[in-house]
Amino acid sequence: MAVLPDVYRGIVEIIADAPGPVQAKQIVPRIGLPTTTGKIEGTRGKLKRLVERGRLDEDTPGQFTLARQGPGRNRVNSQ
Fold first, then answer.
1. Of the four listed, 22, 44, 54, 73, which is most buried by Cβ atoms within 10 Å?
2. Nearest to 26 by CA among 55, 66, 63, 54
3. pLDDT band with cut points at 50, 70 and 90 for residue 70
4. How far apart are CA 7 and CA 31, in angstroms?
């Protein structure tokens, strides 16, 4: 398994500590960024990449949780 860059690792740690699904706008201030539209959209892009790589799940649009299975799992609905 590849090691995540610091910003991605921070995002995963925030989601791991959350009691439920997390939105990009909730993560931005926790990683030390201003809550501007650009920063929220950039973070949302990172979250989507983490979903694509099997680190996170997005069962409801915009709501991210830790993946129930590890990275590299078979994703039926990946496209």
1. 22
2. 63
3. low
4. 8
Task: Pinpoint the alpha helices (H) of 1-79.
Answer: 6-17, 24-27, 37-52
Cα-Cα-Cα-Cα torsion 66, 12, 38, 72, nearest 10 degrees, comes to -60
67 and 47 Cβ atoms separated by less than 8 Å: no
Query: What are the tens digits of pLDDT across the range 14-63?
Result: 999 999 999 999 999 999 999 999 999 999 999 999 999 999 999 999 99
Phi, psi at 33, each rounded to 5°: -105, 155
Q: Which residue has the tokens 């201003």?
A: 34
| The residue count for the chain | 79
Q: Which helix (H) or strand (E) holds 19?
A: none
